[in-house]
Amino acid sequence: MSRNPERNDRKSGKSTPVSGKPPRTAGSPRKSGTGGAGSGGTGDGGRGGWNPNPREKTFTESQRAPRPQRAGADADNFVWGRHPVLAALSNPTRKGMGRLLATADRAAEIQRDGLAPHGHTVEVTDPQLLDRMLPVGAVHQGMVFKVAALQGVALDDIAEPADGIIVMLDQLTDPQNVGAIFRSALAFGARGIIVQDRHSPALAGALAKASAGATERLPCARVTNLSRALERLADLGWRAVGLDGSSEETLEDALDGRPTVLVMGSEGDGIRRLVAEHCDVLAKIPMPGGFESLNVSNAAAVALYEATRKQRPLD
To answer: Disulfide engineering: 283 pairs with which of 175, 177, 207, 251, CB 3.0-4.6 Å?
Structure first.
């Protein structure tokens, strides 16, 4: 149906009003405001009206540039970046899984250096296609692995035998922070990481990128209830130390040589009350500089260093 408010009389060639309003005669005032589909072509502010010779539209350079496209599939189904992808390819549990895509130079590197030990075939493609597959801003470095996120291991697989350090994350949802904690935990030799299943990001996408491949090498247990997990860990011989900036006890004094669970809370709310009640001690990282706000991933790195130093002297 025509959007013109007037219908055309094909026999006479004249237009006949359909709304009961008289047609506008030449010289009659035009209404101002935004027009319909035909406005803007002749400067006519009236509604409707098709202009057979519309003005040519002009565009700025930013409007001419193609808009970046977001990934068609969920980012949790991708691992990208050189270190994360190579770590995933080296993970024996990934054998026979996923789709590996790389630029020509990266594909040559993978084949030349045997970086896909579990038989993954490389699909050579161009960087622009990889850009379109991933979220906007993802730095893929010419390597993308389309594969399901890791599901994690059982709690007892990390906790037995009781020895060393485990990191527990209470409702940390930022993938950059969680990825950085994975990286620090692996660097300091932690046994694994425990997260609550409902309130933690998948072990893929931006998290895997931030971890630089640590998610493929460090076990992660996803549990339903952190408080019950701490009870189970206590039965197995673990001591829980919660990080709390309001505590009177310092982390150095709270730590000893026993198997330790470092419990980290979110930056906004910290450790939740019930989880804190299941910790053996709450401790703070002293900050003599007077600025009492460390990023949670930085605080985790400091706590891991201190806990490792207490358990075995660092070289």
So the answer is: 251
